[in-house]
Each structure stands twice: as structure tokens, then as C-alpha cells.
Amino acid sequence: MQKVKEGGAVSEEELYDLAELFKVFGDSTRIRILYVLFAAETGVGDIAEKLNMTQSAISHQLKILKQAKLVKGRRDGKAMIYSLSDDHVKTIIEMGKEHIEE
Question: What is the pLDDT along the chain (102 residues), one digit of tens a residue?
Fold first, then answer.
């Protein structure tokens, strides 16, 4: 990701991409999934059980998170195991949480 240019100039494409990223964080179910993944990499079934939701609903939200490059999946036999893509994801959530607690 590019840094903000001197004088605060940001391209329209960067603004659009940033807005799209923040839209992904605009769903409490996706935030709940990310919190589950903070603890450890986890399969869809375990996430569904922890959040008391269907595997189908969790899979749908994971697809959105994966498209936004916030989570990644790896195959373990027939199961997909999900984890955070990188530490930035946790940092974004923690900073948002700090902001609302001020």
C-alpha cells in the first residue's frame, strides 16, 4: 500500500480501495470471525460453533474476508483452515477498538 503523498494527495483509486476495505469491517459478523481467528487458525465448523451460526453463513463471510485479503485459508485434508493474513488485520481492529473506547 502506498503512503499518503506529500500534502495529503491520494489518488481516486487509493481512496476507492480504502473505502472498500473499510466496508468489509462494517459487518459485526465479520468482526466476530476475525476475533475468533485472533486466538488461532480455525476451521469453518469450529468458527460456526463458536459463533452459533451455520457453516454456510460463516463460509460466505470468510469468502468476503478472503477477497479483502484479511484472512487466508489452507487445506488440511478435506477441511479448510483459516487464519489472519497478517498482523495488520489485528492492528486495524485494535486501533478501532481503542478509538471507540476513548
Answer: 455 555 578 899 999 999 999 999 999 999 999 999 999 999 999 999 999 999 999 999 999 999 999 999 999 999 999 999 999 999 999 999 999 998
Backbone angles phi, psi at 4, to 5 degrees: -65, 135
Q: Is 43 helix (H, G, I), strand (E, B) or coil?
A: strand
User: In one letter, which amino acid is 11?
Assistant: S
Q: Residue 92 and residue 75: Cα distance in Å, rounded?
A: 27
Tell me which residue of 53, 35, 54, 46 sits closest to 92, measured CA to CA. Answer: 35
CB of 70 closer than 8 Å to CB of 84: yes
Number of Cβ atoms within 10 Å of the Cβ of 101: 6
Query: What integer pLDDT is reported at residue 21 of this predicted model?
Result: 93
CA dist 44 and 55 (Å) reads: 6
Q: Which secondary structure element, helix H or strand E, spans residue 81, and what is its range?
A: strand 79-84
